[in-house]
Amino acid sequence: FPAEEREKKLASCSRHRFRYIAPNTPENFWEVGFPSTQTCMERGYIKEGLDPCPRPKRRQPYNAVFSPKGKEQKI
């Protein structure tokens, strides 16, 4: 094929190359292994707070089935 005809042929059959552009991979995607704790904190994977999360409380307290030990009945 002459150069012009070859370029036209390639342009017509290779259009799919320009229709889809693959997205860039996220930063640190191709690193193999587990990062250290310090690295995780720098990247924001671990957020260290000063106080722990509060424990959720029950709306309805449990019903006491047994009496406490101090209030046992003497026989």
Automatic annotation (TrEMBL):
The lineage of its organism: Eukaryota, Metazoa, Chordata, Craniata, Vertebrata. Residues 7-38 form the DNA endonuclease activator Ctp1 C-terminal domain. One of its GO terms (biological process) is DNA double-strand break processing involved in repair via single-strand annealing. Keywords: DNA damage, Nucleus. InterPro entries: Ctp1_C, RBBP8-like. One of its GO terms (cellular component) is nucleus. Residues 51-75 are annotated as: Disordered. This is DNA endonuclease activator Ctp1 C-terminal domain-containing protein. Its main location: nucleus. The keyword DNA damage applies. It is found in: Nucleus. It comes from the Eukaryota. GO terms for molecular function: damaged DNA binding. The keyword Transport does not apply.
